[in-house]
């Protein structure tokens, strides 16, 4: 441990370099030079060469509190309704910003049951009509081909953040079957359905 006299000399040397007004010499604890210095003076000065500059401390504090941007959806109300005709292909859109390393998942909710459809760009549904179609820069579209009445209901686009973010899409399927529409188009052109295809109720 350094003698107190040595520490006082070092402090005076530092002051001499800053102001040029103090003559430094080897002095003792009882020297009259110290009588002109306030008693609290030494408590107001930090030990030399030990503290970091204030700027460095602030920079370290800022670095420790920096976080990655949090993902968010284009749709501010977090919900959407989509209507399609029976037999048509339909796209359910999910536009995500600042996704980074997180994953987008589509699921189908039926009451308390949740059915996994896609994770990232991979499809896990046993129904081949479902697939993920990504459109740059941020649209994770769920494609449903040949929509039917069973496809109607609630779908969720989920982001694997903490806590998870969920975008809800409710699909409504209306109209007649595509096959019936084709038959109507066939008849409107003046064609006749063969008698063998007609059924009498």
UniProtKB/TrEMBL annotation:
Residues 71-161 form the Ig-like domain. The keyword Cell membrane does not apply. PROSITE patterns: IG_LIKE. Residues 1-21 form the signal peptide. Keywords: Signal. The keyword Signal applies. This is Ig-like domain-containing protein. It comes from Aedes albopictus.
């Amino acid at each position: 441990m350094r003698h107190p006299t040595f520490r006082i000399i070092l402090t005076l040397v530092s002051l001499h370099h800053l102001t040029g007004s103090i003559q430094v010499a080897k002095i003792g604890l009882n020297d009259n030079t110290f009588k002109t210095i306030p008693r609290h003076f030494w408590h107001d000065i930090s030990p030399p060469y030990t503290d970091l500059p204030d700027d460095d401390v602030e920079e370290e504090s800022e670095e420790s509190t920096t976080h990655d941007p949090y993902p968010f959806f284009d749709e501010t109300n977090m919900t959407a309704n989509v209507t399609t005709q029976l037999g048509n292909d339909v796209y359910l859109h999910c536009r995500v910003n600042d996704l980074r390393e997180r994953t987008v998942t589509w699921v189908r909710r039926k009451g308390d049951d949740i059915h996994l459809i896609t994770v990232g760009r991979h499809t896990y549904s046993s129904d081949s009509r479902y697939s993920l179609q990504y459109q740059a820069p941020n649209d994770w579209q769920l494609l449903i081909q040949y929509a039917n009445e069973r496809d109607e209901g609630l779908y969720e686009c989920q982001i694997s953040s903490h806590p998870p973010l969920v975008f809800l899409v409710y699909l409504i399927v209306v109209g007649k079957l595509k096959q019936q529409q084709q038959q109507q188009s066939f008849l409107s052109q003046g064609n006749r359905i063969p008698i063998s295809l007609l059924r009498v109720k």
